[in-house]
Amino acid sequence: xxxxxxxxxxxxxxxxxxxxxxxxxxxxxxxxxxxxxxxxxxxxxxxxxxxxxxxxxxxxxxxxxxxxxxxxxxxxxxxxxxxxxxxxxxxxxxxxxxxxxxxxxxxxxxxxxxxxxxxxxxxxxxxxxxxxxxxxxxxxxxxxxxxxxxxxxxxxxxxxxxxxxxxxxxxxxxxxxxxxxxxxxxxxxxxxxxxxxxxxxxxxxxxxxxxxxxxxxxxxxxxxxxxxxxxxxxxxxxxxxxxxxxxxxxxxxxxxxxxxxxxxxxxxxxxxxxxxxxxxxxxxxxxxxxxxxxxxxxxxxxxxxxxxxxxxxxxxxxxxxxxxxxxxxxxxxxxxxxxxxxxxxxxxxxxxxxxxxxxxxxxxxxxxxxxxxxxxxxxxxxxxxxxxxxxxxxxxxxxxxxxxxxxxxxxxxxxxxxxxxxxxxxxxxxxxxxxxxxxxxxxxxxxxxxxxxxxxxxxxxxxxxxxxxxxxxxxxxxxxxxxxxxxxxxxxxxxxxxxxxxxxxxxxxxxxxxxxxxxxxxxxxxxxxxxxxxxxxxxxxxxxxxxxxxxxxxxxxxxxxxx
Length: 563
Ligand code: SRM
Ligand code: SF4
Fold this sequence. Notes:
This protein is of the alpha+beta class. The chain has helices spanning 13-19, 28-33, 42-48, 62-67, 89-102, 122-134, 160-175, 182-188, 279-293, 304-311, 313-324, 372-382, 402-414, 425-428, 450-463, 523-540, 547-553; strands spanning 53-57, 74-80, 86-87, 107-109, 115-120, 151-152, 215-218, 232-239, 242-250, 269-274, 344-347, 353-357, 363-364, 366-367, 370-371, 386-389, 395-400, 430-432, 473-476, 490-496, 499-504, 515-521. A 5-stranded antiparallel beta sheet has the order 1-2-5-4-13.
């Protein structure tokens, strides 16, 4: 169905909720005051997303509570924005303390470089938001039909280029932040503006975007942000040691629905080049094009990728350029090598150190001998630099002076996490979405299943002599694609409890999607399919050949262009 032909169809329910919400206020305030339930009104659960909040319930407890005739164990998840992934030690300490005081005690680093806290009871949401505000953080537009956390290679100090790119990420993020005062009124007790709900949203208008919108900036040769999965992506082009500008890509997105063939993962199209000072204008032109032409009748067909797929990339470029009033230049050459993080200690351009630290599934917690949460808290207390969240759910401890390096390594060692980067290449390149018990959309386990499959795979890679070889594996509990599984060499996508669809053969540099090779199979069947291939790879690979490329060369999978 073309987005051109959708106007006769009724708008989706969420469009009506947004239109009636008085710029995202709805009945959230009243719902918070109702102590007879841990939930808020269903329409308001759509609006709280724009405030960075999802109503969830503990799915492990559903049956037990139903039997006891109790309402579900409702709580909220908050997503705290970290544009470009950079947080100060003070901010980190605040998040750490608030997680203990109001949430479930763990911190989750997301695949889009944000913090998530789970398990917040309704009455604790407001004090928590007030707590993050004190350290200049917010959760505005971390979710909802607006531009989300702007991703950026998190390594601003490796070269001056990263610094310039980080500034672009922040500028885009600020420019596209909604202007409504709803967040400030509801959570921070700001006095209501006259005629509350009438303030201008110059970019979004009264009904915001048809769907979520994602922007990221990559700095080749690293494609850690998976730039081709973004609605709008920028690829930094460096010429004569300087940032010449950005190649622009648009129309990426990964979510799909099992059994709904009109939904698919899609890689973004390369549409041109702009100078650094033009990036914010390009972002606005792309966002407003999607605002005006995206499908508001069917939320499963509402992302920019479908607008471009239906109308064609030439139409899209023409529309964006007519809004800009100038033409994008021809895209310039670039080359990506990897999606992976570069673990370990490295020097930055200022002569300081940074440590890229592996965090399984981005979950920061203390577990037995591995006291990651305590270790990072101790580091934050003394760190003179800052923390960087990576797009692979990991953390960088950055700006470490010579005299602090040993102390910080000592803290990590004392808490059992000093050698965490010495694990197998497959583990260090694994990601999983949260799925059960918090995600309401999960069809299967993901974060809680990952250790099991990694344990089995590690036996295979070690016996094949591939202990240190990087192979990407990403798992999700449903086809929405939150850990970007369709861009992994091995992708697992939840189908039903204990069952997954298996995907193989994405490119290690994020430029090719993988392909579905088996459906609805358990972990043991996944192993039966993948283990022989890994063994063959160890014996037959060509020099420098990646596992995903090998799967193609030996005919295990065929290339997929766009879903
Ligand atoms: Fe996601 C919905 C978690 C990155 C595609 N995602 C959700 C929700 C909020 C479930 C819900 O709507 O009720 C999940 C909350 C689970 C929980 O308990 O925390 C959720 N998504 C996540 C995170 C935390 C996964 C992680 O392991 O880190 C990531 C948060 C990123 C952030 O900080 O903003 C996360 N989600 C992604 C990505 C990857 C990315 O953006 O790089 C994708 C695929 C890219 C894309 O958007 O196409 C992604 N999430 C989705 C979708 C499918 C969207 C679609 O177009 O079909 C949904 C469902 C929806 O929107 O209806 C979804
Ligand atoms: Fe939930 Fe599915 Fe996203 Fe996993 S991929 S967090 S199960 S929506």
